[in-house]
Write a structure and sequence with these properties.
The protein has 522 residues and is an alpha+beta fold. It is built from 17 helices and 19 strands. Strands 7, 8, 9, 11, 15, 16, 18 and 19 form an eight-stranded mixed β-sheet that branches. The protein has a seven-stranded mixed β-sheet with strand order 1-2-3-4-5-13-12, sandwiched between helices. A two-stranded antiparallel ribbon has the order 6-10.
Length: 522
């Protein structure tokens, strides 16, 4: 199917009106066990074997429920499924283990809603992997670099710094990277991830220790990646990209957990740099190619899904393994990409402040992914079970003493980095045991889009956005003027409310609030 909108059933002659037929029952299946939590029982949509747990701001009056009411009021004429139906549809995937989790930054996406988590039983021979549960920007993620500079050090350097960063880091749609990348070089980077960056001198040894999966997916195969994907990836290594990707110079505005902040080397008014980028055109092509392969697999296995955008394959099928190995390559590409950008950030700071990056203490605090599927062990019905956790617009948030987080963060839990929208705060959080128990070791990833890009361009005033940024003392460099409207704060949910909802639910813990000073976008 070439359709770009969701339909509830993948059958001839049925579509959005069939989805509408399910909507009037929503009150019977939804409940509110806590102020910031909504549950959806199994059975709301056909074939749903896993329930839904959504952490939301505003209880039953939140956007999740409002979308369902609107969908019902318009009798299914709304061209995009409500996120509640997307969550429920994810619970119909073969091998799905409940609950499917929705997070406060939830909004509509391709297949899975953005801001959702779904675990598939990896020991079930019928269990599947679903590219729609990962997204097109595979291993889109965030990293935070600290410095020993403070807000006062930026007073006379801010304009020079933002321009130098903009000059150093390739940004924008179609931008070209600074790394000379041949086919052989690309293949090695796809195999080795950050180990390749270390070998080439683009990363520091300790960077790898402070990176999710230590910056390298092991079960990969560059041969699973198409020539088209490699052609798209070669010129883009070390580029920021476009859309919501950014590089921001920030200052620590507030410390919420003194001990955790100290472990990360953060203190009040300190200057830090946040980088948000992913696997660029390479990852997008891997996802696109997989959808063609999965059509064959679904026909052979006679797999039926409620939404064509939930195309999937048995985990152990040739198509399933090809996707997982290609996805792993794209994840490694993204880590190499963010390492190259970090290299450029360190160079820019060294030039502006006339000191080495080492003397500026530009160490990596952490690097997190928020579009990825990984095999993990979680407790299911009181027993440990291997599951394939799909996180789409969701961040891993493992609690203290978990073996997969760095030694120096064992006592506080995994650092979680949440990037805000342009001109708003970002957050540093930590993972918790509650997240392990209630959300598959996951929490929110950002503020979450409220308006489409088209609605933002048509409904937001450019002058007021510029005035607001200037009043806050924020300096921007944008590769495209339209980004000023598409990425305006009013286009997104309130990031502080999103964080507060997750903090109150116990699926993360506040450490520090960061305030932007310089913003670079593609």
């Amino acid at each position: 199917s070439k359709a770009t909108v969701s339909v509830l059933y993948w059958r001839k002659g049925e579509g959005l009106m069939d989805a509408y037929a399910r909507v009037p029952d929503w009150k019977r299946f939804m409940s509110q066990p806590a102020d910031n939590e909504i549950n959806i029982d199994k059975g709301w949509v056909k074939g749903q074997t896993a329930g839904v747990r959504a952490f939301v701001h505003g209880g039953m009056e939140n956007n999740v429920v409002s979308e369902v009411k609107d969908f019902a009021m318009n009798k299914g004429k709304r061209r995009i499924l409500p996120t509640a139906l997307q969550l429920a549809n994810a619970g119909t995937l073969p091998g799905a283990v409940g609950p499917v989790v929705g997070l406060p930054d939830l909004h509509c996406g391709y297949g899975f809603a953005i801001g959702s988590v779904c675990a598939i039983d990896a020991e079930d021979p019928k269990g599947v992997v679903c590219p729609g549960g990962v997204g097109f920007d595979i291993n889109c993620g965030v990293r935070l670099i600290r410095t020993n500079l403070f807000k006062s050090d930026l007073k006379d350097k801010k304009e020079q710094l933002v321009q130098t960063l903009y000059d150093h880091i390739p940004v924008g749609l179609g931008s070209m990277g600074i790394l000379p990348t041949s086919h052989d070089v690309l293949t090695k980077s796809l195999e080795l991830g950050m180990d390749w960056s270390l070998r080439e001198g683009h990363a520091w040894a300790e960077d790898k220790e402070h990176c999710e999966e230590f910056g390298r997916m092991l079960d990969v195969d560059p041969a699973a990646c198409s020539i088209r994907a490699k052609k798209r990836g070669m010129p883009q290594m070390g580029t920021l990209g476009a859309g919501n990707h950014f590089c921001e110079v920030q200052t620590v505005d507030q410390i919420c957990d003194d001990y955790a902040a100290k472990r990360m080397g953060l203190e009040k008014d300190q200057v830090v740099v946040m980088v948000h980028s992913g696997s660029r055109g390479f990852g997008h092509q891997i996802a696109t190619d997989s959808l063609v392969d999965l059509e064959k697999s679904m026909a052979r296995e006679k797999l039926m899904v409620n939404d064509p955008q939930l195309a999937c394959a048995r985990i152990n099928s040739p198509e399933g393994q090809k996707y997982l190995k290609g996805m792993g390559c794209a994840a490694n590409y993204a880590w190499v990409n963010r390492s190259a950008i970090t290299f450029l950030v360190r160079q820019a700071f060294s030039k502006v402040f006339e000191s080495s990056a080492d003397d500026l203490d530009m160490h990596l605090v952490y690097d997190v992914s928020h579009n990825i599927a990984k095999f993990e062990q979680h407790m299911v019905n009181g027993r440990p079970k291997k599951v394939l956790v799909h996180r789409k617009g969701a961040t891993r948030a493992f609690g203290p003493n978990h073996p997969d987080i760095p030694v120096d963060y064992q006592s506080i839990g995994q650092p979680v980095l949440l990037g805000g929208s342009m001109g708003t705060a970002s957050w540093v959080l930590t993972g918790t045991e509650t997240a392990m128990e209630r959300s598959w070791g996951s929490t929110c990833h950002g503020s979450g889009r409220e308006l489409s890009r088209n609605s933002s361009r048509n409904g937001i005033d450019q002058t007021s956005v510029l005035t607001d940024l200037q009043s806050q003392g924020i300096t921007c460099r944008l590769a495209s003027p339209k980004l000023l409207l598409e990425e305006a704060p009013d286009a997104y949910k309130d990031v502080d409310e999103v964080v507060e909802t997750c903090h109150t639910a116990g699926i993360c813990k506040k450490t520090a609030r960061l305030k932007p000073v310089c913003v670079i976008k593609g």
